[in-house]
């Protein structure tokens, strides 16, 4: 359960749009998880300004990534953002990483494309001209089928006999409704759905990574 208040609007396509009272509340919800509803993953991400409610494919999800033994010179928001960008789209680092209160590994929330092969290590060019092969550890990767392009089961256990017209796992729409006004609130809304995922926005405050 979330330890904060949030208003909810439901889009006719099945998307749930949450609006939080403060940016800190939104970031706290984004930083925690994973969240489950009746055993199914609930994907939550910051809502972009021009989100497409009609998108059906879901292959990009936020996942916490650890970089064990990362040199301290690479712990700045700018360096972490560049390192995480080798895996996907960096979203934010956790508070312990920001404060360097836990120095055994840096931890960053990254939007990963599950259709791509996940890297077990990346090569980093250090400021002194040398290179470092940095191990990568993924936390709580969701089950994802590359054939159906949906969450909920793995490719190896997929029972689908055809890759055409896949049926995504989505929240059931609740009938025709007006377009919720909260979805256009820039930088203050969070959406979730057991369906498509859009690209998150980046920031610098409260653990957000820099450019």
Automatic annotation (TrEMBL):
This is DUF4283 domain-containing protein. It comes from the Eukaryota. It comes from Populus trichocarpa. Residues 161-211 are annotated as: Disordered.
């Amino acid at each position: 359960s979330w330890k904060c208040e949030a208003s909810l609007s439901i889009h006719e396509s099945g998307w749930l749009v949450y609006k939080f009272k403060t940016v800190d509340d939104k970031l706290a919800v984004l930083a925690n998880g994973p969240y489950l509803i009746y055993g199914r993953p609930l994907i939550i991400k910051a809502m972009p300004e021009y989100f497409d409610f009609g998108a059906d494919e879901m292959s990009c999800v936020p996942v916490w990534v650890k970089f064990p033994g990362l040199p301290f010179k690479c712990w700045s928001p700018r360096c972490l953002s560049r390192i995480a960008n080798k895996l996907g789209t960096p979203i934010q680092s956790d508070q312990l990483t920001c404060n360097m209160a836990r120095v055994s590994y840096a931890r960053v929330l990254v939007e990963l494309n599950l259709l791509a092969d996940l890297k077990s290590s990346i090569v980093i060019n250090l400021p002194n001209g040398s290179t470092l092969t940095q191990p990568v550890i993924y936390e709580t990767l969701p089950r994802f089928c590359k054939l159906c392009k949906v969450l909920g089961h793995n490719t190896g256990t997929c029972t689908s006999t055809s890759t055409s017209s896949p049926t995504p796992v989505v929240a059931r729409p609740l009938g025709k409704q007006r377009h919720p006004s909260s979805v256009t609130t820039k930088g203050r809304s969070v959406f979730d759905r057991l369906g498509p995922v859009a690209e998150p926005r980046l920031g610098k405050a409260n653990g957000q990574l820099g450019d």
